[in-house]
């Protein structure tokens, strides 16, 4: 069923290009417009992007720029206030489906920037702390389906995406530092005000970049996935912003995935955010390819033979099986059963010294190239980014005479896009192994025989 048509208010110049006036201020990254008064009788469920944003939003702004709409109807804000029990935070926390409420610590601790507490504790702390939780079901149900329908997203297949609603209580002088998300976000400032700083980033990112989180475990995976979008990606916040805006009560903001943003609470208040998460074209292509391959009895067989796998891949000619298949170093990826954190992945890695003699049999004759599905980082690079950003020390082993590298190959298919195969490589400082691995990081394959064998076995090198 197509989305129902809504009556758009005429803009200040008499046109009907959405609900904004005809002379908004613009920048390459942030567009700004002002919303004229909205019909007082408009049902709250009709509060959707097409009412608030220009008619060319989908073609000209969505996924490329941010858009700030000033002056949403006060009657609509009043309706939201009624659903949220006059913005009573205790009711909000108890009605939230979140298992616990996230509290932002006002000063950085050595171990964490946030803690999770029960609703009763959150209510007491909210007078001095900023908080985050999932939005109450009544409000979530109101917005989630209407936003997707209005934007004409996933109409052909609702399994391709979904939306979530979050509630943020911002308490001065809280700052959520530079980061970017992987979702499309629509924020409504219900009370108080916030300053938003923006910096251009990469488009269509598959994973967020969150250097503001005080957790070294996020660095490695986010670097690996950031390099999918940009080979020169570095895990660090911008040094300056491109453009800023202030959201006051009743203002509406859209910002796409990959845009770095920093949010400062100017005056204490509440905002809600509708985030849209969807499958990528690569996701649905691979899903379809998987379905097609499963029509063949051979592809449906459990993995037991490298030769059979490579034979099947050769017939398809889309992706080389050698890029995926790693002979050595594989460890099981296990999902945590933690109730506090969703999709926590526990990784175990083996350590190999590329200066040691390789005792197995690996063919390294002919031309080799770096596996397009692999990435090589130094251990100090990962902890160094975290230390630089957080200002916190990280417990590390003494360097000694060896240098450590982390080799990630392919993807495990989980929500965190972890590598299928992760291994630690050691080599003597200043030796042939280090020279060889530094060449690999620059895309060059040296002639060091033991290094070529180890990397071919672990999946870092493939036949050219």
TrEMBL record:
Pfam families: Cupin_8 (PF13621). PROSITE patterns: JMJC. Coiled coil: none annotated. Residues 125-293 form the JmjC domain. Residues 1-34 are annotated as: Disordered. It comes from the Eukaryota. InterPro entries: Cupin_8, JmjC_dom. Residues 11-34 have a biased composition (Polar residues). This is JmjC domain-containing protein.
């Amino acid at each position: 069923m197509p989305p129902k048509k809504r009556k758009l208010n005429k803009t200040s110049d008499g046109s009907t290009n959405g609900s904004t006036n005809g002379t908004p201020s613009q920048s390459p990254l942030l567009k700004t417009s002002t919303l004229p008064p909205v019909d007082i009788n408009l049902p709250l469920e009709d509060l959707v992007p097409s009412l608030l944003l220009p008619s060319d939003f989908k073609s000209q702004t969505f996924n490329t720029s941010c858009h700030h709409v000033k002056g949403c109807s006060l009657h609509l804000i009043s309706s939201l206030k009624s659903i949220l029990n006059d913005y009573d935070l205790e009711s909000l926390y108890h009605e939230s489906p979140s298992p616990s409420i996230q509290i932002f610590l006002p000063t950085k601790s050595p171990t964490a920037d946030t803690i999770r507490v029960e609703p009763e504790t959150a209510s007491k702390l909210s007078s001095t702390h900023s908080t985050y939780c999932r939005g109450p079901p009544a409000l979530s149900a109101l917005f989630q389906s209407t936003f997707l329908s209005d934007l004409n997203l996933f109409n052909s297949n609702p399994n391709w995406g979904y939306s979530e609603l979050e509630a943020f209580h911002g308490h001065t002088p809280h700052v959520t530092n530079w980061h970017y998300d992987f979702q499309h976000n629509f924020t409504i400032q219900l009370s108080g005000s916030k300053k938003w700083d923006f910096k251009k980033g990469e488009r269509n990112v598959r994973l967020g970049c969150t250097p503001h989180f005080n957790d070294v475990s996020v660095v490695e995976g986010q670097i690996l996935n950031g390099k999918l979008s940009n080979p020169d990606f570095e895990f660090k916040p911008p040094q300056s912003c491109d453009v800023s805006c202030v959201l006051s009560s009743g203002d509406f903001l859209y910002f796409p995935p990959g845009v770095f943003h920093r949010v400062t609470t100017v005056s204490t208040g509440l905002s809600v955010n509708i985030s849209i998460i969807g499958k990528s074209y690569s996701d649905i292509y691979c899903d379809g390819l998987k379905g097609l391959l499963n029509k063949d009895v051979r592809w449906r067989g459990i993995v037991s033979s490298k030769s059979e796998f490579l034979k099947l891949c050769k017939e398809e000619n889309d992706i080389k099986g050698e890029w995926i298949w790693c002979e050595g170093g594989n460890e099981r990826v296990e999902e945590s059963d933690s109730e506090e954190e969703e999709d926590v992945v526990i990784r175990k890695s083996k350590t190999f010294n590329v200066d040691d003699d390789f005792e197995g049999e690996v063919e390294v004759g002919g031309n080799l190239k770096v596996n397009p599905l692999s990435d090589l980082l130094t251990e100090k690079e990962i902890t160094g980014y975290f230390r630089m950003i957080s200002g916190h020390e990280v417990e590390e082993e003494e360097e000694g005479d060896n240098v450590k590298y982390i080799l990630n190959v392919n993807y495990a298919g989980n929500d965190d896009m972890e590598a299928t195969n992760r291994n630690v490589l050691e080599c003597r400082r200043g030796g042939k192994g280090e020279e060889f691995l530094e060449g690999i990081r620059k895309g060059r394959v040296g002639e060091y025989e033991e290094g070529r064998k180890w990397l071919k076995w672990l999946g870092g090198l493939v036949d050219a």
